[in-house]
Design a protein that fits this description.
By secondary structure, the chain is mainly alpha-helical. The chain contains 15 helices and 2 strands.
Length: 345
Amino acid sequence: MPLLLIGWPILALVAVWLVPKSAQRWIMLALAALLVGTVCLLAWTLPDNSIFQSTGEWIRVDLLSLVMIAAITAVVLPVLLYLALNPHAAVIREGARSLSWLLAMLAAMYGVVITGNIGLLWVAVEATTICSALLIVQGQKRARATLEAAWKYILICSVGIIFALLGTILFYFAAQRTGSHGLDWSALIGAAPGMEGNLVRLAFVFVLVGYGAKAGLAPMHNWLPDTYSQAPAPVAAILSAIPFGCAGYAVFRLYALVALAGEQSFASTILIGLGLLSVAIAVPFMLVQSDIKRLLAYSSVEHIGLVFLGLGFGSALGISAALLHLFNHSLAKPAAFLTVGEITD
């Protein structure tokens, strides 16, 4: 069933090339209904404290995955409805090519949160970077500013994702030294108590820098205001889900691994420090912005700082607050971007 979350966008991607442009809005409506139905069915069939996983854990869904799936869907649903009901939206005007990148990005986003293999998780996060960068530059009038924003996005996020890959390799190496093999979550969880502390700390620093750059966490946030301000409203709304629902999810996952390895205090100190730094940097810039999309972008920097701050506290209350804030952001930020799109795009 979780594979349907990837399958529906891919099926819609094929369909937009086969139907007339006037009928593409119905594909968006059908996709919205299918995604909501699949998420509801998945939530209904996943009992409390239960896990759905395939052999080898290529697919793995637990309660944290389900929360992130719901958060991504909360972003995706209004965007699909906006595209279906607004034929003048920039993404719709460009036709099948732009819609293809958008749908491919949706599939990659769901792929991040349903895999139980941290190597595949890295691949899916990188796929969101490629798809979203190509989507940003589709049919934009301000070509120079848009290309500059897209290149900045690709450069910072790609450098960051290299650090995330190094961190993933170090986690694998630390697990291998305990006699465990593989990048699946169950193997890593079993090996975590025996992992060497220095390796775990170094791996977490690399992972946090890598996925933190993708999340827009200060001081790796420079791509985010330019990218959000240049992207069409539906694209900016979708992009707002990637830092929280994808990169944030990766940090949540690997933070749990670090905690099991006995290095929670080290990870918490870094998360709290970077969370406070993100809030401290974002708030002054929010106060002086005249471009509303840049204002919303700096708001996202502040919000990801608050999420990481809650995660850094490490208690059940702190993590619950971080997840609640993440979900609230998934409801509010797309609505804000789509409203701005009605005014400016």
